[in-house]
Design a protein that fits this description.
The complex is a heterodimer of chains A (442) and B (106).
Chain A lengths: L1 H24 L1 H27 L10 H12 L1 H9 L5 H16 L4 H16 L2 E2 L2 E2 L9 H20 L12 H8 L1 H22 L3 H16 L2 H16 L4 H26 L9 H8 L8 H8 L4 H15 L4 H6 L9 H20 L16 H8 L5 H47 L2
Antiparallel strand pairs in A: 1-2
Helix pairs in contact in A: 2-4, 2-5, 2-12, 5-6, 5-7, 6-7, 6-9, 7-9, 11-12, 11-17, 13-18, 14-15, 14-19, 17-19, 18-19
Chain B lengths: L1 E7 L4 H16 L3 E7 L3 H4 L5 E4 L7 H8 L6 E3 L2 H5 L3 H17 L1
Parallel strand pairs in B: 1-2, 1-3, 3-4
Helix pairs in contact in B: 1-5
The chains are: A mainly alpha (442), B alpha/beta (106).
GO biological process, one term (chain B): phosphoenolpyruvate-dependent sugar phosphotransferase system
Organism (chain B): Pantoea alhagi
Pfam families (chain B): PTS_IIB
């Protein structure tokens, strides 16, 4: 067992750590993550509007408060929908500007200009214009992958032209602000001259515009992203990386976000149309069933530690409990420690995977409401789970069940760790007493 | 006046440590500016500080981040796992001051 464990640690250190470093810091992966982070506040508020439009009551409820709300939301549906349409409905705008700006910073270009350039590149291929109207079909979830690709393409072109010094030079007397806006002229021309013909070409060749073609190509991958194997694989990678002390969630969510958002938009569209929600594995599922109190679902662990007989564990528990409510658990991970501690390898990897199987099955059976909204990852897990499912109550129960299960699995391992710590503490105090006695004798 | 920058993925857990370090600074009667940022803000921020300490969970970024600060001569180091977990403001402050002093010598 020990040699097996050592072998595993060796593989992680020699192979996986450098790979994770390379993937996690690859400029496009970083830019995609940044793009989503900058779009997030808009999308959280926008999808919060869904609660006003679809309050958590049965449609035929006769209870006065619920009836009043339902009637209000029906009468003012269009007005209430506006903030939702102009955030979730056009999420690709925020994402493309965010990704462009991040790459702009990376290449030391003007981030605002790079973001706007990315936005224009996206519109060129994703906004067919006819009879004075722009078609908006691909501004939401269906356009995410296109927004990523066009943002990367436009930023790379801008960076390339800048590097090759292909730019319009104005006399020195012209102020830098004006000069900067002229600097972008050639990149704009190049992007229009390449993306627009490409779009026409793809359309005439396949009968689909670019975002449509991209979704067509990616469809198998998008479908596969919402499956139990995808859940288990993503959480396994995250746990193994974190066990090795690498912020695995940063890498996994960076890759999963485009899929989660595409599927979230599909769930919201289904809710709006009054249909069954098609998708299960979304960020709300990840944040509030698999990372309860942070990676490894360690919130129940914080409670266990508070009552530990070992002083060290009690200290960690006291320090870790408050941040744990907000899903920040570095004190527990590094303090116990769990990271690189062979004793905790199994429960740390298994707890979120077992939770995943239960939460997935219960959701598929229709016992637990599906995710349809976005909640900040720092929301306490049971509340966040409810928030993400439009304030349904079943996710709270699911979340509490996952917590109880986690506590049960962690408990024997914590006890074993406590025993070895108590032994150390006893030895330390014995030797301290011995040396203290030694000093006193003349 | 010492200027110390902490950095992790979102700047969340490091900001808890910042609080502890500031308490320690006050205890010792020193003057120091300590702040936590997310890794994405690194490029814009590091130049204003004497030293950058990373949370152990982003140790994998150390090499590439250190490459960016090399011309300014700002050391980038990773905080000891145990000190981070137990939020030992005193030890991390000692570490930061030690790195700043070494820089002064070199």
């Amino acid at each position: 067992m020990t040699s097996l464990y050592q072998g595993l640690i060796n593989i992680i250190e020699r192979k996986i750590t450098p790979l994770a470093g390379a993937v996690g810091q690859q400029r496009h992966v970083v830019a995609i993550r940044d793009g989503f982070v900058s779009a997030l506040p808009f999308m959280i508020i926008g999808s919060f509007m869904l609660v006003f439009i679809f309050p958590p009551f049965a449609a035929d409820s006769q209870w006065g408060f619920a009836r009043g709300w339902l009637d209000f939301s029906l009468r003012y549906r269009d007005q209430l929908m506006l903030p939702y349409y102009l955030s979730m409905g056009v999420m690709t705008f925020f994402i493309s500007v965010g990704i462009g700006a991040s790459l702009g910073r990376h290449y030391k270009l003007d981030p605002v200009m790079t973001g706007l350039l990315a936005f224009m590149g996206f519109l060129l291929v994703a906004a067919p214009y006819q009879d004075g109207k722009i078609a908006t079909d691909y501004f939401s979830g269906q356009g995410i992958f296109t927004a990523i690709l066009t943002a990367i393409y436009t930023s790379e072109i801008y960076a390339l032209l800048k590097r090759k010094n292909i730019t319009i030079r104005l006399p020195k007397e012209v102020s830098t602000g004006v000069a900067r806006s002229f600097e972008i002229l050639i990149p704009v021309i190049v992007i229009v001259a390449t993306l627009h013909p490409l779009n026409l070409l793809v359309a005439s060749w396949s009968g689909m515009i670019i975002p449509q073609a991209i979704m067509h190509l990616l469809q198998p991958l998008v479908s596969a992203s919402d499956s139990l194997p995808a859940v288990l694989l993503s959480v396994l990678i995250c746990q193994i990386l974190w066990f090795a002390g690498i912020h695995g969630a940063l890498i996994v969510t960076g890759i999963m976000n485009p899929f989660w958002l595409t599927n979230l938009a599909a769930n919201q569209a289904a809710l709006e149309a009054g249909q069954a929600l098609p998708h299960t594995y979304l960020m709300g599922f990840w944040d509030f069933y698999l990372l309860i109190g942070g990676v490894g679902s360690t919130l129940p662990l914080a409670f266990l530690l508070l009552r530990s007989r070992a002083a060290h564990l009690r200290t960690i528990g006291k320090m870790g409990i408050v941040p744990s409510f907000f899903n920040i658990n570095e004190p527990i991970l590094f303090g116990m420690p769990i990271i690189m501690n062979p004793l905790f390898f199994l429960p740390f990897i298994l707890v979120p995977m077992i939770n995943a199987v239960f939460a997935w099955t219960a959701t598929k059976l229709g016992w637990v409401a599906q995710v349809v909204s976005m909640a900040p990852w720092t929301t306490p897990a049971p509340i966040g789970a409810s928030w993400a499912a439009n304030w349904a109550f079943s996710p709270v129960i699911m979340c509490l069940f996952c917590m109880a299960l986690s506590a049960l699995i962690y408990l024997p391992f914590v006890k074993a760790w406590e025993r070895s710590l108590l032994q150390q503490e006893a030895e330390a105090s014995q030797s301290a007493a011995a040396s203290g006695a030694g000093l006193q004798t003349p | 006046m010492y200027k110390i920058m902490l950095c992790c993925s979102a700047g969340m857990s490091t900001s808890m440590l910042v609080k502890k370090m500031q308490d320690e600074v006050a205890n010792r009667g020193l003057e120091a500016e300590i702040a936590a940022f997310s890794a994405t803000e690194f490029d814009e921020r590091f130049a204003c500080y004497d030293v950058v300490l990373l949370g152990p969970q982003v140790k994998y970024m150390q090499e590439s981040l250190a490459a960016k600060t090399v011309s300014e001569g700002i050391p980038v180091a990773t905080i000891n796992m145990m000190d981070y977990g137990t939020m030992r403001g005193d030890k991390v402050l000692d570490y930061a001051l030690q790195l700043i002093e070494q820089k002064g010598v070199a």
